[in-house]
Design a protein that fits this description.
By secondary structure, this protein is mainly α. It contains 20 helices and two strands. A two-stranded antiparallel sheet has the order 1-2. Helix 3 runs parallel beside helix 8, helix 4 crosses helix 6 and helix 11 runs parallel beside helix 13.
């Protein structure tokens, strides 16, 4: 996992040579671990009473890092192009805080803080992640965290008495019963969609997608056999957990991430590696499906088969597509410039505005953006995502720096997967959005140290 000396010798930047030294563990590595460990506390009995501070801590940590970076960082790294777009997003949200339909100033401010906390890693991560070797180590840590999460999810179906949380989030379960969050398994057993190391049914699907991608990447990498086998096990658990959670969109996104990685790897000239990755991915998709159908029964098979029951647009329309139509139909007509802050989401749920008569419901990010800032908000955030993807592609095709390019290919695939969730989820007011901007910031910081233009 060392950086090639010949690659470093080709660097046009003196900073790159200095970055060749091995970087010890630091805040970046601990931050990635914290994003799994902190929510995992909530699966312990009796922790729902302190759910708010635990959930908030996941967002306060990146805010604290942003404060430290502003006060102490002496590293001069050119800003990412996406930062300008995010500054514009925050300015628009600050204006919307005073929108006449904002239910309460405190609720709106909390909603704005969530947005800001999610995007802050783009600013401070470059100061903490310095070399391709450290970036690869962070991806390995992310694989372990996501893989363990996925394995717990599989075990929650296999042996729920031992592994399923004693209590779930009151917010997610209130008034729902078990119907929307469960299905019938073998022998008529009721199976709760596995939460993994979270306390919300089905929430294992997100980290499981990363486990599948990263596990396959490391499984075909040049590393010790035991690490490759462990990576393969994590990848298999990730795919099985997605099947068992029955979150179909995560399966589609995972497949898309794998395709992106394989294509970029081939574009880098690593055709053999890309082929090996694709063949192994196909075998694992089938094997994991067989395992999941054994544990979850016919319900898992039927759920996955609905993806091919009709054309993709029709399938999407039957799931989240209706809300997309409402967003660009009725909401576009009624509130093209936004409808106030704090009217949906976590801030609304915790700070009381969700119970207000003016509360709105957003299942996909487009709807949330339309509520929070209208068409302009959608345009600005999409702009940030597009320029980020373009920058990551430039790093992934920077052939002079092979190790960095390999990390860039992985991060490009992973972040495109997160970005695609805007059609089915609200990732950029959730922890998965924090991870997105952290990986984007980390890659940008290393790329700038190596003098890659446009990164």
């Amino acid at each position: 996992m060392n950086v090639r000396p010949d690659v470093l010798a080709a660097s046009p930047q003196p900073m790159a040579a200095a970055a060749a030294a091995r970087v010890p563990w630091g805040f970046a590595e601990l931050f990635i671990i914290s994003q799994t460990v902190l929510p995992a506390i909530l699966i312990l009995p009796g922790t729902q009473a302190v759910r708010l501070p635990i959930r908030v801590s996941c967002f306060l940590l990146p805010l604290a890092a942003f404060g430290w970076w502003n006060l102490n960082s002496e590293i001069n790294i050119r800003q990412s192009r996406a930062q300008s777009w995010l500054f514009a997003v925050m300015f628009l949200l600050a204006v919307m805080l005073f929108h006449p339909q904002t239910p309460s100033f405190m609720g709106g401010l909390a909603h704005l803080a969530v947005y800001f906390a999610v995007m802050t890693p783009l600013f401070w991560a470059p100061a903490f992640v310095k070399t391709p070797e450290q970036l690869a180590r962070i991806l390995w840590i992310l694989l372990i965290c996501s893989g363990v999460n996925a394995m717990v999810g599989v075990l929650q179906v296999y042996d729920p008495q031992r592994w399923l949380p004693a209590e779930f989030s009151r917010v997610s379960m209130a008034g729902l019963g078990l119907g929307p969050v469960s299905y019938v398994g073998p022998d008529g057993r009721v199976i709760v969609r596995p939460p993994g190391l979270f306390d919300t049914p089905g929430s294992v699907a997100g980290p499981a997608a990363y486990a599948a991608l990263l596990g396959l990447v490391f499984a075909v990498s040049a590393m010790p056999a035991w690490k490759r086998l462990m990576s393969l096990a994590f990848a298999g658990a990730g795919l099985a957990a997605i099947y068992l959670s029955q979150v179909r969109i995560c399966l589609v996104i995972t497949l898309a991430m794998m395709v992106v990685y394989a294509v970029v790897a081939a574009r880098q000239g690593r055709v053999g590696r890309a082929t090996q990755f694709a063949v192994l991915a196909g075998a694992l998709l089938v094997g994991s499906f067989m395992l999941a159908s054994t544990l979850g029964g016919q319900s898992v098979v039927e759920r996955i088969m609905t993806l091919t029951a009709s054309d993709p647009l029709t399938v999407y329309q039957g799931a989240r597509g209706a809300q997309l139509q409402v967003t660009f139909g009725q909401m576009f007509t009624d509130a093209p410039l936004g409808a106030g802050l704090g009217r949906w989401g976590m801030a609304g749920a915790y700070f009381g505005t969700a119970a207000d008569s003016n509360a709105l419901w957003a299942e996909i990010q487009f709807t949330g953006w339309m509520i929070d800032g209208g068409v302009l908000m959608i345009a600005l955030y999409l702009g940030a995502l597009i320029v980020t993807a373009m920058a990551q592609y430039r790093v992934a095709t920077a052939y002079r720096f092979s190790r960095l390019a390999q990390c860039g290919a992985v991060i490009l695939a992973a972040d495109l997967g997160t970005a695609a969730m805007i059609f089915s989820f609200t990732p950029f007011v959730a922890q998965v959005g924090i991870q997105y901007w952290f990986l984007a910031g980390a890659l940008h910081g290393v790329a700038q140290r190596y003098g890659i233009e446009g990164a």
